Amino acid sequence: MEKSIKKNITEELNELKKNIVSDEEFKERLNKRVERQKTLKKEILEKHPNLTEEDITLGIIEAYGELGYIPSKKPEDYLDTIKADVVLVNGFIKDVYTPAVPMYMVPFGSSISHNFSGTSSVLEILIEPEDKEIPVEKIIFGGVVPVEKGDKIKVHIAKCEEYHKGLLDRVSKTTYYKKRGWKKEEYASKIEKIRNHEVVATYQRK
User: Fold this and answer.
1) Do 125 and 147 have their domain in common?
2) Under 8 Å CB-to-CB from 84, ≥6 apart: which residues?
3) How many Å apart are CA 158 and CA 42, to the nearest integer?
4) Domain of 200?
């Protein structure tokens, strides 16, 4: 029995030894990783001069290696545009109510009264993009502006989505954005009305 136990322990130790690298090999691997990170950091700074050294954490560097680009803290870095004909426009205005007291002061399960705080408006614009490869069918814009069927417009869209590399980003509440493809329904940050190939009006959120 004792011999059998010793034999098993010896086999386990031998198996562990196979996976243990020497100090020299460990240092070599570490140096390669450090050099790789330096190279990626340099590439990132060259492609995105708006970033600072502080922005480029290990998590972001790894994300750059996986995604092929660096996520940004600003959705504006992913602005794209669509030129399109307006097919139909629907405008909506709704009342907005806010709690009469802060929610943390309300006992669990209790009802709470709300005060009228104003109105909000939104525009739904059905479009036909000039580029038939773009699948966008509807544009949502916060606010009612004088756009109607038959107008030609240029829509500015932040074509991105939130991206979190790992738990540290979530804990620190750091939000990054990464590029994505077109969706059938997009939210516009700016709309330009075009007439005779010239912009005659611009509507945007401040």
Assistant:
1) yes
2) 127, 128, 129, 130, 136, 139, 152, 153, 154, 155
3) 26
4) 76-204
In this structure, are strands 138-141 and 185-195 parallel, antiparallel, or unpaired? parallel
Write down the residue that tokens 């009612």 correspond to: 144
**What pLDDT digit, counting tens, does each position of 176-199 carry?**
788 889 999 999 999 999 999 999
pLDDT value of residue 143: 85
Residues forming a β-bridge with 92: 122
Last residue of some domain: 12, 40, 70?
Answer: 70
- The mean pLDDT value for 33-48 works out to 75
The verdict on 114 and 188 lying in the same domain is yes
> What pTM, to 2 d.p., does this model score?
0.60
Taking each helix axis as running N to C, give the angle between helix 58-67 and helix 23-47, from 0 to 180 degrees, rounded to the nearest 10: 80
CB 69 within 8 A of CB 110: no
Q: Specify the pLDDT at position 156.
A: 96
Are 162 and 144 within one domain? yes
> What are the Cα distances from residue 65, in Å, to 70, 71, 159, 165, 168?
8, 11, 21, 12, 18
End position of a domain, from candidates 70, 86, 119: 70
- Structure tokens given for 185: 């329904």
